[in-house]
Amino acid sequence: MTATQPLLSVRNLRLDVSSGVSIVNDISFDVAPGEIVALVGESGSGKTMAARASMRLLPKGIHPGAGQILFNGKDVLTASDEDMRALRGAQIGMIFQEPMVSLNPAMTIGAQLVEGLRLHEKLSVEQALDRAVDMLRRVQINDPEGCLAAFPHQFSGGMRQRIMIASVMLLKPKLLIADEPTTALDTLTQREVIEVMVDLTRSQGTAVLLITHNLGLVSQYAQRMVVLERGKLVETGSVEQVLHHPRETYTRTLIDALPKRFHGRPAIAEAAPLIEARNLAVTFAGAGNMFSAAQPKQAVKGVSLAVRPGEAVAIVGGSGSGKTTFGRALIGLLAHSGGEVLFRGKSMNGADRAQQRDYRLSCQLVFQDPYSSLDPRQKIASIVGEPLRHEPGLSRAQKAERVQEILDEVGLGGFGDRYPHALSGGQRQRVAIARAVIRNPAFVVADEPVSALDMTIQKQVLDLFRRLQARHGFACVFISHDLGAVSSVADRIVVMENGLIVEEGDVDDILDHPTHPYTKALLEAAPTIGVAA
Amino acid sequence: MKRPAPNLLIGGTLVTVVLAMAATALFWTPYDPMALNLRARTLPPSELYWLGTDEFGRDVVSRLLLGASQSLTVAIFTVLLAVAVGTILGLISGYVRGITDRILMVVSDAVLAFPGTLLALGLMVIMGPNTMGIILALGIAYTPSVLRIVRGSVLSAREREYVEASRAIGNSEFYTMIRHVLPNCVAPVVVLATSMFGWVVLAESGLSFLGLGVPPPAPTWGNMLSAARPYLERAPWLGLAPGLCIAFTLLGINLLGDALRDRLDPRMER
Amino acid sequence: QEGNLRIRINADIRSSDPGINRDANSDAVVAHVVEGLVGYKDDATVAPLLAKSVDVSADGLTYTFTLRDGVTFSNGEALTSEDVLFAWDRYTNPESGWRCLPDVNGEGVSHVTDVSAPDASTVVFTLEQPTALFLATLARADCGGTGIYHSSSLDAEGKWVAPIGTGPFTFGEWRTGQFVELKANPNYSALEGARDGYVGDKTPLVETVRFVIVPDDSAAKAALYAGDVDVIPDVNNADVPEFKADERIDLQSVPGMGLTALLFQTQDPLLGDVRIREALRLSLDLSEIADVVSEGQAKPSNSVIPQPSSYFTEVQAQVPARDLEKAKALLAEAGYKGEPITWLTTEFYPQLFSAAILVQAMAQEAGINIQIETLDWATLLDRYTNGTYQAMSFTYSARLDPSLSYDMVSGDKAAQPNKVWDSVEGRDLMAKARVSSDPAERQAIFDQLEGMIRADVPLLVLYSGTRVSAAHAGVEGYATWPVGLPRAWGVSVNSGN
Amino acid sequence: MPALARYIGKRLLWTLPTLLLVSVMVFFMVRLIPGDPVQLILGDQATPSEVAQLTRKLGLDQPIPVQFVLWLGQVAQGDLGNSITNGQPVLPLMLGRFQVTAVIVILAVGLATLIAVPAGLLAAWKQNGRLDIAVVAAATLLMSVPSFWLGLVLLLVFGLKLGWLPVVGFVPFTENFWSALTYIVLPVATLTLIEVGVLTRMVRASAIEVLRLEYVTHARAKGLSERQVLLRHVMPNAFAPTWTMIGLVLGGLLGGAAVLETVFTLPGLGRLLVDAIFARDYPVVQGCLLFTALLYVLVNLIVDLCYPLFDPRVTAS
Ligand SMILES: Nc1ncnc2c1ncn2[C@@H]1O[C@H](COP(=O)(O)OP(=O)(O)OP(=O)(O)O)[C@@H](O)[C@H]1O
Ligand SMILES: Nc1ncnc2c1ncn2[C@@H]1O[C@H](COP(=O)(O)OP(=O)(O)OP(=O)(O)O)[C@@H](O)[C@H]1O
Ligand SMILES: [Mg+2]
Ligand SMILES: [Mg+2]
């Protein structure tokens, strides 16, 4: 234990769901000022809920059942509403796991940033805006001034995440709870963002509770770590000790599950490409609103890529470089403004209905933001089973069986009856994956499919991908920032920057001998756990 | 089991009472609701006549009971008609957009701008004055409102990512519309439908003035209410009785509507 | 003259042009501004108004009007026979659309062949045929009382501006949808004798009269209580008991000249059978209906001739009794088996609606199956005009002479489908009554007609209308009369309300 | 700017078919329903020759399509014709009446919105609590009172019993501001109460949806008070359906609130139209409906133009 008085002290916390089940059971840990504590653990183990409980912002239906959460010695769970409001934002800041849905779609970024600032500090609007711009710049948003007037939907996933982070750190809270803050960020940006956080701890003595799956990050930045499994505390101690000398088997499996370079993949048979982009370009009509002239934004500027059957191509690249946009355009969800897509050798520009339909059904997408891609009014089983509608000749029972099978494979057996809102971030992501692969499509664009998954589950999912590929030979474009994950599934890597491909090649070539400076920088910035994995 | 939500409890009770009233009238009323008693006109409530008598000496209780079934029939069918047609067209209009949307908007604006009085008179010519006529006239008059409300919600809902996800799976536009857009637009429709219920009951009273109402002497709450107008001071119970019936029915239906909406909303913790 | 009298009217006036584009409200307002040669008295007989005297030649073809001396228009100009000719020319010009043109050009009551002005104060009308109704026609309110107006009522192009007349008031501001305001005429010269109908002393006692347009009966009632209007000239029957009970309100009721009646289509397959019509009559308690429908204001009267008429005698006053047994017997005889009879009515006139409800319930007891259909007034009037109905409740506007009353219900159905009674014999009798000016002879004819029409039952008159007015207690001198139109002269308003 | 102007221009162009459709519907419907203006003017004493003469004079003896074409030609030149009943030109008559209606309706809908938004938000915030049930009950009660009753009761209480306000009449604002105000207080109050119910429920329903979203939690995490959360984050996102509703209500009422205008004896557009319908005053009915339709389309155009303000994801195109 640290010598100083802990800033946050969670004692024997239990969280119950209305039905009586506990999702968090008897966990205790401390966070001292100026300290970075990592909270790791399996997806769905209750990390997010424990963090939310510290701000008393539990979703409806989840109640603290026992225990205390002391902030500066005061129990958060019994404080008055008034006191809590004073605490939130200024004292305890929280970066939410799902940045996509955590920004108000109807408010400009500027308004959302300034709002909290002006609430806790006496600042003029100009001063507040200055501070906001400054912070945006620090989290690597280019053109921060222009960004103030834009709405959330006009940003890429990573950009939104950085805006979220900026909005929280702007307030310089005493305790920063960061729930998977960098899942959508490329390694370079990730490093920058974490540096800002570390800066804060140094200059302001801010304590950070960092929830993450990225053990590399943990090993590089955190002092202590807490490991959860299924709502129970497994192990806690200094990072050094836990990572290098894990006491518990669960911790060990977690570390062992770190993705490894997968050597010995069978070479992909030379074949005609399954899907091919030729000079694909995508332009967004306007980032301006309808009262000011719209400025078209070219997000993808002529990208060519061919994917053969059974091949897995990884796209890496900076946040906002156009990966998602390209992925969506590739499977025809987004209209392209130039170039063409060929599927099974036929151009989809002006294809007939049957071809369109084949294309549509054969190409699936795992959305980068799983939460908003799940219909809030449908149960998980129904969401996952929906693509089976297009599988003729399946009986109801067969369908249910398939759904059960795939849910089991992604580790969600028994969750079929839940609604999306009652899942953890990682669980939602797995739902999205299950939905995309249930019909064994010929081609999948997986947009950050494992970003919210802990190492064990991530491994499970990556294994699933590989298995499916081996069994059905589906091709896949795998968009990820996680070079570890990339190295374990991909045959080929494509590096994007600014809407263009800057480098592409074999996994091993790129990882071992990057040529483009940007690629080099990306690789260099990747945090490693510093142990022989 | 958990305690049912208060809105379900109160709403359910009120609606049950009203339905019971309507059902009772089929078998029994204290007096013949149509029988005049010219010696007993506008009597205040008494033991003999619980809620008094109207300007023709007819028993108010009996007429209320019978009126319940008449009013409910008209209201239910009108709302069903308007909601069904309005929702379908609104979905199409908001989802498909383009020329279809424009044409539907042109027609709905035209109907909206059309006064109910004229529409009713016109339909009277076609249908003759009967219950079908009322339902059709009011149904047509209210459909565009539903259409607009649904369209508005659809415009928002169709931009959601789960709608895109449905398309990505390969679902047809039609299926996506029904399965993913529609359920996420129900809240305003439920509100509108339950509110409309009241409007219809009241509008029927206006129509009976034109002869498009339920033909006399059969009572509806609406025409009882409008007939009671000159007696507001002299015999207030004449207006109060149907007025309260309408109010309580509406309250019941609205609360029930809320309960229903909650039920449809998975995020609502019960 | 001081104060402002506010009289409620239920709809805007149509124009200020007498007898042209008019309705009852327009007539009422215009009658305050212009006066005709003759006018009605309270008992609905005709008396000289602008004329000092009227001489009728022995053959009944020449009417000589001598104008009163010293009468000036409100603009100060003296009234001369030229003015009468000017107005008459405009009335009889088909372009103007005078309501009563058919009644002076030979299509209807009379045919005026010549009008001349031998001197400044004499006007002579020459008729083609004698008629008892010529003066009554000139006086008719819906003819604008054939009011004489000054030529400056029209602009240079001959377009109507506003009436400049000799009446007690001048036309002031007309704000459409809100009110019409009249001002006391400083140049008014009163007739001798007490105020009597539209004649007599009509000196204004208030500075202004405002005819306030209040369409809604309940709102009008509230306005009367609140003192926002002073007089409601035509009270809704349903409000009568309430006003009666209130001592702040002065309620007056006189029998009117209009009729509330039930009409049967004698060409209908079912109702064409006189036994069924008779059975219907027997099934109804007519006294009770009249009593209920008029809230006790009207006495039942089953004659086409309205109660206030001097021709309304014992014969007309008979009210047949209800006899259910006989009704049933007649129905059985006619082979009636409960076929539905569609009964048209409207809520526009509440008494018509009430009547239908009562009839339905009473006839039910005799086994007659009536189904009510409510229509808007325009549609009902249309059905009436075209005769396309089985039975309906209807209200007739005032007819001031019995021959006109008979004319209103009787005629050739083929030519005029709105007539309910088509009897050749009856038409002959009516023609006789029209030209005769001997009251005894006319009475005999009307009595005979009464018997005939009662035997044929083409319609059932319930009562001749009542004219009920309500005035605020602070209003002095307001009186209603059988014609029913409001009169603001001779009325004063106590200051302080 | 040019994009917006083009968009508005295009939308305005689309009003033409609406107006044409309304014209055709109205023109033929008023002539097909039974009842004849000539009979109504002449009354029960009319003789066939009188009827024929007046019919000819009013031009109603021509075939209906011919009448329609003639009328359309007139309208194209900005002339809506003259009223059959009183001969006045329709356009100024209508505009005069519209002023009265517009003042009252806009005030009432504005007030109703101002009441409904906080009430609905509060109810949603306390969903299923006592406050919520009370708000829902009050809103429902208000919705179930017919306007003629509510108006009459207010009239009786404030005009008659208390004598605070005049019972009938109207004074234009241009004439005397304060006196004008006394005349419109009751109608505005009545209309506000009538409309507030449905708007409150609409706000409540949408707010309930929004309140559960993540960004609301995020706003709370910033330390915003509940009031700020409701007003800044919930309200704008929950407002879209309410906004549509306001457009509908406004569009409907601007065409006239006949019942209300009758009860309060206001010379408004609604009464003009209803009177004209009952009098079968064809030119006035046609003129009024054309005007109402235009209003409707304009109000809804504004509503549509404002959508992106509440939901920037909805593009105007
Ligand atoms: N509203 C709810 N009702 C019931 N169970 C819930 C609800 N929300 C979350 N859960 C469950 O609570 C558990 C803990 O969720 P939590 O979000 O804390 O997980 P997590 O550790 O953050 O996981 P991840 O790494 O995937 O984000 C999960 O199993 C989840 O399914
Ligand atoms: N709807 C939109 N309107 C305007 N610009 C958009 C829109 N969507 C995305 N963009 C812009 O397009 C660019 C590429 O976005 P995209 O989502 O493809 O990035 P990405 O590579 O997936 O980034 P990340 O890794 O952060 O998810 C970004 O600069 C973004 O601001
Ligand atoms: Mg989580
Ligand atoms: Mg992306």
TrEMBL record, chain A:
Membrane topology: Peripheral membrane protein
Gene Ontology cellular component annotations, sorted alphabetically: plasma membrane
All copies of domain ABC transporter, residue ranges: 8-255, 275-523
Source species, domain of life: Bacteria
Keyword terms, alphabetized: ATP-binding, Cell inner membrane, Cell membrane, Membrane, Nucleotide-binding, Translocase, Transport
Pfam families xref list: ABC_tran, oligo_HPY
InterPro entries, A to Z: AAA+_ATPase, ABC_Ni/Peptide_Import, ABC_transporter-like_ATP-bd, ABC_transporter-like_CS, Oligopep_ABC_C, P-loop_NTPase
Localization annotation: Cell inner membrane
CDD domains linked: ABC_NikE_OppD_transporters
Gene Ontology annotations of biological process type: peptide transport
MF term (GO), any: ATP binding
Similarity comment: Belongs to the ABC transporter superfamily.
Full protein name: Peptide ABC transporter ATP-binding protein
Organism from which the protein derives: Devosia riboflavina
TrEMBL record, chain B:
Domain ABC transmembrane type-1, first and last residues per copy: 68-257
Pfam families with a match to the protein in the record: BPD_transp_1
InterPro entries: BP-dependent_transpt_permease, MetI-like, MetI-like_sf
Topological type in the membrane: Multi-pass membrane protein
GO cellular component, one term: plasma membrane
TM ranges: 7-28, 72-96, 103-126, 132-150, 181-202, 237-260
Chief place where the protein resides: membrane
Compartments where located: Cell membrane
One GO BP annotation of this record: transmembrane transport
Keywords on record: Cell membrane, Membrane, Transmembrane, Transmembrane helix, Transport
Family as reported in the entry's similarity comment: Belongs to the binding-protein-dependent transport system permease family.
Name recorded for this polypeptide: Peptide ABC transporter permease
From TrEMBL, chain D:
Regions crossing the membrane: 12-33, 98-121, 133-160, 180-199, 242-264, 284-303
InterPro entries per the UniProt record, alphabetical: BPD_transp_1_N, MetI-like, MetI-like_sf
UniProt keyword list: Cell membrane, Membrane, Transmembrane, Transmembrane helix, Transport
Single GO biological process annotation from the record: transmembrane transport
Gene Ontology CC terms, in alphabetical order: plasma membrane
Keyword Zinc: no
Similarity comment: Belongs to the binding-protein-dependent transport system permease family.
Protein name from the UniProt record: Peptide ABC transporter
Organism the protein comes from: Devosia riboflavina
